């Protein structure tokens, strides 16, 4: 089976991240397939709405940090991280956040790091009751949120709450995501897939031209999103060479709290 599964339900395409053994972490193959499918389904007139979800117990745990999972290009860690964002991860966000067709994200479990950015690309975010989101870049790794989170999250919940989540790394439970206006609905875990399909079917029956226009007015603005993604890549590139990030990586590998200077 592939790293991404696609199922057709009438005029809805369900796209499922399919690396459950790694909590659907984004490696090179999964990232490239998400970009390819987003472009292909976006151009397919028989597809009128999309559902994005994950297989197993997580939606997406962010970048795959396993050695060899991602290409290492550049003369420093910072250069390699910047290159990965610019060429591997950011194209996912550009493709999905700017799709003219309605996208329902069915978050079936944890979304962490860059996985939060992926959860935010949809027009409607459904969260299972057990789902949560976590931003650990700043407090655990000495980095900044990326994959569009610095642009998409404040637009959804406001700057104060977005800053608190980024700086403290406190997990955001599904119920809080709903009350803060981030999630459209929270549903029992076993009912998530059916509810997502129900909403997607309603959207697929709607007027495509008006939906595309409304998304253009209400959704991510291409130039602003591009600017945010570029700024994230620059910041991440600088910070990835800093001693704080090296300590964060060592602490992560050693399963201990980081001790920053």
Question: Can you give a write-up of this model?
Answer:
- By secondary structure, the chain is α/β, with parallel strands linked by helices.
- The protein has a single domain (4-189), classed as 2-enoyl-CoA Hydratase, Chain A, domain 1, CATH 3.90.226.
- The chain is 48% helix and 16% strand.
- The protein contains 11 helices and 10 strands.
- It has helices at 28-42, 77-97, 114-119, 137-141, 149-157, 159-168, 174-179, 192-204, 208-218, 222-239, 243-254, and strands spanning 4-9, 12-17, 49-54, 58-60, 103-107, 110-112, 124-128, 132-134, 172-173, 185-187.
- Strands 1-2-3-5-7-10 form a 6-stranded mixed sheet, sandwiched between helices. It has a 4-stranded mixed sheet with strand order 4-6-8-9.
- Helix 2 packs antiparallel against helix 10 (222-239) and helix 5 packs across helix 6.
- The chain is globular, with a radius of gyration of 18 Å.
- The termini are far apart.
Number of helices: 11
Oligomer: single chain
* Mean pLDDT rating: 96
Work out the count of structural domains.
1
- Radius of gyration over alpha carbons? 18 Å
Number of strands: 10
Q: How would you spell out the order of helices and strands?
A: EEHEEHEEHEEHHHEHEHHHH
In which order are the strands of the major sheet placed? 1-2-3-5-7-10
Q: Mind telling me which CATH architecture this is?
A: Alpha-Beta Complex
Itemize the secondary structure elements and their pairings.
Blueprint: E1 4-9, E2 12-17, H1 28-42, E3 49-54, E4 58-60, H2 77-97, E5 103-107, E6 110-112, H3 114-119, E7 124-128, E8 132-134, H4 137-141, H5 149-157, H6 159-168, E9 172-173, H7 174-179, E10 185-187, H8 192-204, H9 208-218, H10 222-239, H11 243-254
Parallel strand pairs: 2-3, 3-5, 4-6, 5-7, 6-8, 7-10
Antiparallel strand pairs: 1-2, 8-9
Helix pairs in contact: 1-2, 2-10, 5-6
